[in-house]
Amino acid sequence: MFVVSDEQGDIEASPIYPTGLFSFDTRFLSRWVLTIDGERLNALSRDDLQYYETRFFLVPGEPTHYIDAKVSIIRQQSITGCLVEQLTVLNHSTEPCDLTVRVEMAADFADLFEIKDVRQKRGETTAAIDDGHLRISYERDTFLRETIIWSTAPARVDSEGMTFDIHVEPRGRWSTEVHVQPVVRGARGRDIRTSLESTRHRPKHEVQQELDQWLADAPELVCDWEPLSRAYRRSLTDLAAMRYGSLTDPVRLPTAGLPWFMTMFGRDSLFICLQTLPFIPQLTPVALRLLGRWQGSKLDDFRDEEPGKIMHEIRYGESAAFEEAPHSPYYGSADSTPLYVILLDEYERWSGDVETVRSLEFEARAALDWIDEHGDLVGNGYTSYQARNKINGLENQCWKDSWDSISYHDGRIPDPPRATCELQGYAYDAKMRGARLAREFWGDPGYADRLEREAADLKERFNRDFWISDGEFYALALDTEGRPVDALSSNMGHLLWSGIVEPSRAKKVVEHLLGPSLFSGWGVRTLAERETRYNPLGYHVGTVWPFDNSIIAWGLWRYGFRREAGQIAQAIIEAAEYFNGRLPEAFAGYDRTFTNFPVEYPTACSPQGWSAGATLLFLRTILGLNPYEDHLAVIPHLPSKIRRIELLDIPGRWGRADAFGRADGHRRRRTSTS
User: Fold this and answer.
1) 114 and 194: one domain?
2) Average of pLDDT values for 206-231?
């Protein structure tokens, strides 16, 4: 559950900005407006106390140059299983006052997908007053949603809100709490949410204790560069805030991002786990099991489902319930499946959890089978994608999934199927890692040998077919005829992470990534400035994505370009300072020398799961943290802004370990089993 309001704490439905109280892809409040004697309120300041609580300091009337308010209001909103708004009216006068406090209320029960594209609801909305409670209900066949609102102080309740007639003594105060409870009715009328730990109403101190424990369990960072320390704590807190339990499973995982993607995404969950393994490893086995449970088992064109395929996203709104959208779940991503195998192997390397690796053998083998049996649409040995759902399936099923993200240098869009370069890197890495799992844990050396042969063949063919000799870079993709899609993009950095790049070509790849056409000064752009479709405000055609850059930096480190990895890490963390330590989904690709600050992308999710994870992966990269048998290897290479850094209590198969780095190159590791 989450709430998005304006600067006063009000909610007014708009197709431009998704204000409201949301739970399971449905808006349970579309209007929530506070007035005093009929006047709207003006915000003096706002205090984000914690991720679950915000406080607004307000006065009645329009803002003026001089405020001599005789009355002020403190409005505190918290999410602890339901929305609780505490209203406190302060009388600063020496005279008593009588006031009319009104909260206007409405619920449109809009599906999250309807926010931008308002359409006529097919069900019926009713409002009823029941023993001082306002109950707003929506019913369409078996789809039942309800908003129940009540207050602790007496109120006049009508179908559009609550009115409080209050008397406040001189220098006195009046207060009440207004509770808003979303209800998701099952077939028998029971609230499905009551069985989920993540939606249980809890006192604030319990929520705070859980956050404190979450932060205490993560490694402690001691660093002489405050922007990194601030971004680290903010990222850990955001990851805690975005944890989500589905309607069908009580376990919680970080969602993709607020407000549009507050649900489980296969690709995002896998990358978040890869980014956070050295810090919050408990996320990974949960993600692997849950995604394995939803793994595709049949051919279903509507959902783009195929046997062995890992899902893209799952939704619980009205459009998914009535199959007006294919998100129950939807399988339209070509990268989630190889990433599943990559994460399983990486998790074992860090944790030594052999039981999980063995228990998920079937799912991992099915994912590896998918690469060749369903991922190769053209029959040329490369993973490609094309939507089976021709009505509302995703045209691009790589991480850059906007319609125009894959283009030739001249701006033309290639026909599908499209085999993007990073998909081949993921497939190569999945086969290599799958071979290790098969040989060491599944007792199948023959299968391991086969996977290694296939990986070697893929690497050889890839470096022949994707390399553009006259530009000395890897093509963004191959089109359906096997021709290179010759745009210069950030996708090459993912190739370094996967290990598919020939070492002799790595230097040229790095020169492009850090060159002026791709590197903005704040990070690597998704598409180079020289490309026809480049737009610094284009979603995947010129913006800078912190997640993308974290994978690129990890890849640079793998190939020995550690100074360059630190350069990217430092640039992104410097950008985070302009966003109060919270990295957004993306920001504009303007050159740093042109703007002098990172320009916001207008509809970026913030917070966002893999942007929060990016800070943690940057930290792993600059410290050079890698599991080596039962030990933690530390090979630091610090960016210029950091002189000394310590990361204490790093969890892994070694127990707990401390890592130290200094600008003079000195490194040290201390391991304990506590």
Assistant:
1) yes
2) 95
Q: Residues 6 or more apart from 340 whose CB is under 8 A from it?
A: 266, 270, 288, 291, 292, 310, 363, 364, 367, 430
Tell which of 177, 203, 229 closes a domain.
203
- Distance between CA atoms of residues 200 and 186, nearest Å: 17
- Token look-up 């028998």 returns 188
636, 667 Cβ separation under 8 angstroms: yes
Q: Which pLDDT belongs to residue 639?
A: 97
pTM of the full structure: 0.94
What pLDDT was estimated at residue 81?
85
Please write the tens of the pLDDT for every residue from 339-348.
999 999 999 9
Which residues touch 430 (CB under 8 Å, ≥6 apart)? 337, 338, 339, 340, 341, 342, 367, 368, 371
Q: How many angstroms separate the CA atoms of 423 and 346, rounded?
A: 18
Residue 242 pLDDT > 70: yes
* Angle in degrees, CA 495, 465, 557, rounded to 5: 15
pLDDT given for residue 669 in this prediction: 56
Q: What percent of the chain has pLDDT over 90?
A: 83
CA distance 431 to 398: 19
Q: Give the CATH number for residue 400.
A: 1.50.10.10
Parent domain of 33: 2-203
Residue written as tokens 């509302």?
392
* Burial of 276 from C-beta contacts in 10 A (0-12 / 13-18 / 19+): buried
* Pair of tokens at residue 377: 């649409």
The single residue listed with the structure tokens 């077939």 is 187
Question: Using H for helix, E for strand and C for coil, what is the string for 430-443?
Answer: HHHHHHHHHHHCCC
Neighbours of 64 (CB within 10 A): 9
Q: Which of 159, 188, 203 is the last residue of a domain?
A: 203
Q: Which residues contact 566 (CB under 8 A, 6 or more apart)?
A: 553, 621, 622, 637, 638, 639, 640
Contact 486, 468 (CB under 8 A): yes
pLDDT score recorded for residue 69: 85
**What band does 188 get if pLDDT is binned at 50, 70 and 90?**
low
**What pLDDT is attached to residue 1?**
86
C-alpha–C-alpha distance, residues 89 and 74, integer Å = 7
CA-closest candidate to residue 20, choices 84, 147, 107, 78: 107
The count of domains in the chain is 2
CA 251 to chain centre: 17
Based on the domain organization, do 21 and 133 belong to the same domain?
Answer: yes
Domain membership flag for residue 225: no
Q: Which residue has the higher pLDDT, 136 or 15?
A: 136
- Could you report the per-residue pLDDT of 511-552, keeping only the tens digit for each? 999 999 999 999 999 999 999 999 999 999 999 999 999 999
